[in-house]
Amino acid sequence: MIISSIFGFISGIGVGSFFYINLGIFLALGFLIIIFFIYKNFVPEENRRVLVFISIFLLGTLCGLARVTFSNLYTTSQLGSFVEQKISTEGIIVGEPDVRENNTKLTVRLSQVNFLNSTTSVSEKILVTTSLYPEFHYGDKVAIVLTLKEPKNIDSGDGHVFDYKGYLKVRGIWYTASFVKISLISRGHGSLIKTGLFKIKHAFTASLNRVLPEPESSLMAGLLLGTKQSLGKDLLLEFQKTGVSHIIVLSGYNIAIVATSIMSFLSFLPKSFSFSFGIGSIILFTILSGGSASAWRAAIMVMAALVAKRYNRDYKASRVLGFAIVLMLAPNPLLLIFDPSFQLSVLATIGIIFVSPLIFPYFKWVTKKWEFREIISTTIATQLTVLPFLIYNTGLFSLVSLPVNILILATIPTTMFLGFITGIAGLISLYLSFIPAFFAYILLWYQLTVVHIGASLPFGSILLATFSPLVLIFTYLIIFLFLYFLKKQTI
User: What are the residue boundaries of the ComEC/Rec2-related protein domain, all occurrences included (predicted)?
Assistant: First the structure.
């Protein structure tokens, strides 16, 4: 019955994201739930379970509809009257600056707006694009002269449109501003924990940058911390063409390594202490990495696994995935429809949990050395669940994804280990970090070379035409039927 409530909650959010539900529909749905719940007492025992299932599903749907109705999707902005007007503002940078190749994007929570000799108090975030220098940091209070713009969806030119407006609303941002005049007022207005974590992150990445050249150092930062913007557009496109963008997105694998390493290091302490430090390290590491939707999904699942192991409970990944989805959608229901990283993360996890076990037996002929069999089955499983969605959003169909993944995935754990040692050693002594950095560089160079060759092949990827959401749904229906048949064959 828990499953029916989860599916109902997700369905309610999905429907409510496309259609505004008025009070009359809420009352009608609530009345229908009461009817089903009462009617179950007057039917035979074999039909009662079905009615209970429907009642719980509809109740979950009602909760999902209610949650999305009171989300950022249907609330109005405090800054609406200032759009397209030149205004003077003050605010605090509430997120880690997103440093790109040619600019820096700052998330600023405005506290006041000065316009036409009057001051208005506000509390709302905007996204500001400014030059690389001077540098600003999390927690800085700044004064900005800007013109607010309503964000527009991004058209790639080949018919694929990215809902940038919805993507920003997920993050509580209604408006953007570019080419602003910005100046520092004061520092130190952020959370002490976040400030400390970002300082550690900057010191660690600076340690990597001192001994590793570009783009190897940026790739290492992506592997360890999930930061990928500094790789540049051209290299990111190569990762997309070869289907290996997932290696630079913080996953459960990265987070599990951090947690288990800390717990092993503190194994001499009582189990309750090492366990608590492990859970705390996951939360802090996720915040340090930027706290993306995919990172938090992975963090929740890893923490659930640690709790299950600590208290000798069964760990059912499917139920934990449902719990993680609901736990993330409850505070921010817009993730379901408007955040591609959340969608891809969930689809990939579904592939690993449900599809990979069905495919794995068909690759008994593949050697287990270097985990080749697991890599192949997992890659195919995730491609089955993720590829239709990726093609729908980007139009890119990678023909070299499988061989490229096979060639580089086995080297990733060693690369991450060497990168971690390099970064830590560099904080102690520059010369000490040269030894692990040398071996890390060889692996990073190899990975980048494989990606570059795969992306350079004329048949490496195909740009497909746009298609409707109905085609996407039909495609997943065919995949589901295929997997259902495959499961019947293995029983």
Answer: 223-487
